[in-house]
Specification:
426 residues; alpha/beta; Adenylosuccinate Synthetase, Chain A, domain 1; Adenylosuccinate Synthetase, Chain A, domain 3; 3 domains; 10-stranded mixed sheet; 4-stranded mixed sheet; 12 helices; globular; binds guanosine-5'-diphosphate
Length: 426
Amino acid sequence: MSATAIVGANWGDEGKGKTTDYLAVEADFVVRFQGGGNAGHTIINNYGKFVLHLLPSGVFYPGVVNVLGPGVALNISTFLKELDLLVRNGVPEPTLRISTRAQVILPYHLLLDKYEEERLNKQQFGSTQQGIAPFYADKYLKVGVQVADLFEADRLRQRLAMALTTKNVFFEHLYHRPTLSVDELMPGLLQAGERIKPFVCDTTSLLHEALRQNKRILLEGQLGALRDPDHGIYPYSTSSSPLAGFAAVGAGIPPYAIQRIVAVVKAYSSCVGTGPFVTELLGPEGDELRNRGGDDGEYGATTGRPRRVGWFDAVATRYGCRVQGATEVALTLLDVLGYRDEIPVCVAYEVEGEVVEEFPTSATLDRARPIFEYWPGWQSDISEARTFEDLPKNAQVYTHKIETLIGVPIKWISVGPTREAMIMKN
Ligand code: GDP
C-alpha cells in the first residue's frame, strides 16, 4: 500500500503540474485533494500546452484514473470546460472520478468573492475570484452543498434556502447588489448535476480498494506550503490546506498510506497576490527574472497577473519542506538562472539587528530583511541536460548547496517546462 504526495514547498507555481505529469507515467491514480480552479498547473507534453485548474495532471495518460476527492472545491463549469478543451486538442478522453462528498462552488460563492474584494479595495487579498474563500467558509459553516445533493432536488432546495438566508442579507445590505432566490439557482444546478453524473462515485471506496490492490497513487497538491491556513503566511493564505498531511483527509485515504512526499521547490522565488515576500526583487532586476522565468515569463496561469519574483529563500523553503514533511525534493526551473554570473541566495533573515533562521510568523515577517550569499552562476543554457553530470559544475554546486540548506535530498532537477526536461539525481 503506498501513495506519493506531490506538493509545493513555496508560494505555489513551483511546477507541480509538470512534476506530476512526469511522475504519472508510473501511476494508476492521480488525485486532487484540495482547492479548486484558483490555481493553474501548466503542462507541456506531446499534446501541446495546457493549464489545468481542476483536472488532475494524470489526464494525459489513458491508463490513469483521475480523481477529485472530497476535499476539492468543485466548479462544475470549469471541470466541463477543461475536459472539453483536452478532448478538442486530441487528448484521449481521460478517466475521471468525482467524489460524491466533494462540495460544489455555487454561483453566490463567485459573487461573494468578487464583491468582497471590491469592498476591501486597497486592502484586498488578491483573490483569484474563483469563489474559494466563500466556498470553504460555507463548508465549515455547514451550509455547503455536496455533489450527492445535486441528485436530490428537495434536499438541494433546503440546503440552498438555508444558505441564501444569510447570503441575501450580505448582498442587499453590505454589497448593495441584487439578492438571489432558490428558484433561479435550481435548474442550473440540477442540470450541472446531470452532466457530471457519469463521473460521480464513492472515490473513498475506490481508493481504498486501489491501495488494497497495491496500485500506485499520486496525490497532487495545489499552491504551496506558505499558503497553508495554519502554517503559512496568514492571512495571505488560501482556504484549504495544501499540505501532504491534509492529502490523506482530502483524498480519503489512511495517513499511513502516504509513504513518499515530493516537495516541489523552485530554484528562485515567485509569489502571486499580496503579503510579505522577503526576497522580492523590484525594478529592472525583477523584470528580467520575471520575463525569463516559467515557460513564457512569470505570469499567473489563472489570472495572467505578473507574478512577484525574488531570489531563492532558504529560510522559507526549509520551513516549507518541513511542514510538508518532505522525503525528497524536485528542484524546478533551474534553467531560468542560466543568465546570471552570480546568483544571490537568501540564507537567513535579519530582523531588527538579529539573525533569524527559522521562518517567523507574519507579524515578524513584515520586518524581515534578506541576508544574501552570492553563489557563482553557470552562464549557459542547461535545458538540454538529462543527467546530473551534464550540468555545469556551478549548477551542480548550486543544487548541492540548496540541498544542504533545506536538509532534504533533491531527487529530481527540472531544466525546462517539457516532460523530458527532467534529471534524476542519485
Ligand atoms: P504549478 O501550479 O506548481 O504546476 O506551477 P505553474 O504551472 O503555475 O507554474 C510553473 C511554470 O513554470 C509553468 O509556466 C511551467 O510551464 C513552467 N515550468 C515548470 N518547470 C519548469 C522548468 O524546469 N523550467 C522552466 N523554464 N519552466 C518550467
